[in-house]
Write a structure and sequence with these properties.
mainly alpha, 58% helix
Length: 248
């Protein structure tokens, strides 16, 4: 979650660092960038500033004051700002990369951003699944999964692409859980929506289906807004470094 590890007293320095990175010589590459920053800093750290006028800070000023987790989150926020541009200006890309090196941050979000910057949408999609929690749940080193990926493509990351009766039976047993239990609620969640169970071709695979527990626990629907609510819930509940677009 952005800025989750930062106390309010760090807000001025963080804001100046973001200005030093992402506000180019001719101004912001997107007018939405300073607006987003203003909202984030005001809501999360209680800090109000005019990001069009704020003086920039240097990488050395910022690096010395931050922990490793704080540096990662700051770079992820910088990458989010550059991803708001289509295309990403080369000067902005170079600036973010320079700051990442100065802050000693090697982050998966940089890889995704670079793929998109080079118009490699297919590669970025693959990296999205490969590098986030869905890919981790798919046991990527398992030769069986690698075979599925080679045969079915990116769909293998998130969907059941071959019948797995054992996996389907495991999820089907949730309907036998007591009334009012979480397992029974998840079974009803699938039944009410006509969703296929993990292990059935076309259904979510077991890795992706883990997030359905959040739908049930938090009461979020499966509409587009509901999926965004689930993503925000998961990001806000995690203290691990995360990126907004990875749904980690």
């Amino acid at each position: 979650m952005f800025l989750i590890h930062n106390p309010p007293e760090q807000a001025p320095l963080l804001a100046a660092g973001l200005v030093g990175t992402c506000r180019l010589e001719d101004g912001w590459a997107s007018p939405t960038q300073p607006k987003l920053l203003a909202i984030l800093f005001e809501r999360l750290l209680g800090f109000s500033a005019d990001f069009d006028r704020l003086a920039p800070a240097s990488p050395s000023d910022v690096a010395a004051a931050l922990t490793e987790a704080q540096r990662h989150e700051l770079i992820e926020l910088m990458v989010t700002l550059e991803m708001m541009c289509r295309p990403i200006p080369p000067a902005l890309q170079a600036s973010v990369e320079s700051w990442a090196r100065a802050l000693d941050v090697e982050d998966r979000v940089l890889l995704l951003a670079r793929d998109l910057a080079s118009q490699s949408a297919a590669r970025a999609t693959a990296d999205f699944y490969r590098l986030n929690w869905i890919g981790e749940g798919d046991a990527q080193d398992d030769p069986r999964f690698q075979t599925l990926l080679a045969h079915y493509g990116d769909a293998a990351y998130a969907l059941s692409v071959e019948d797995d009766p054992q996996e389907t039976a495991r999820w089907a047993r949730l309907k036998d859980c007591p009334e009012g239990s979480l397992g029974r609620a998840l079974s009803e969640f699938y039944a009410q929506r006509g969703f296929r169970l993990p292990g059935e071709i076309g259904g979510a695979n077991a890795a992706l289906a883990q997030h359905d527990w959040v739908h049930v626990i938090a009461g979020y629907d499966t509409t587009a807004i509901g999926e965004l609510e689930v993503t925000a819930f998961m990001a806000a509940a995690s203290r691990a470094p995360c990126w907004a677009l990875s749904a980690r």
